[in-house]
Design a protein that fits this description.
By secondary structure, the chain is α+β, with helices and mostly antiparallel strands. It has helices at residues 31-35, 58-67; strands at residues 4-8, 16-22, 40-42, 48-50, 73-77, 82-84. It has a single domain (4-77), classed as Alpha-Beta Plaits (2-Layer Sandwich). The protein binds iron/sulfur cluster. InterPro entries: Fe-S_cluster_ET (IPR051269).
Length: 85
């Protein structure tokens, strides 16, 4: 497990409570940005950061995580249980 940035999500009606980006796994492929540009952007080190954890619906949030080729995006539910990958 690499260095992980955790972003709290408190979107009403969402089952997702946290979006986590593993910075060591992220290779800057930007698939997540392509799927959910409202949620993600790349920082100066070409690593994904979450600029808004609440903007996307669950479907888009899961699709963005699933698009990551290195599975650098981890999703947890509101009880802290990992739901992806
Ligand atoms: S898709 Fe994965 S590897 Fe690519 S920028 Fe997003 S988190 Fe990083």
């Amino acid at each position: 497990m690499g260095k992980q940035d955790t972003y709290k999500r408190d979107k009403e009606g969402s089952e997702i409570g946290e979006i986590i980006v593993d910075r060591d796994l992220c290779i800057g492929a930007a698939s997540c940005v392509a799927v959910s540009g409202g949620t993600y952007e790349l920082d100066g080190e070409n690593k994904a950061i979450v600029k808004d954890a609440n903007v996307a619906d669950d479907e888009e949030t899961k699709a963005a995580a699933a698009s990551c080729p290195t599975k650098a995006i981890i999703l947890k539910d509101k009880q802290g249980k990992q739901i992806y990958p």
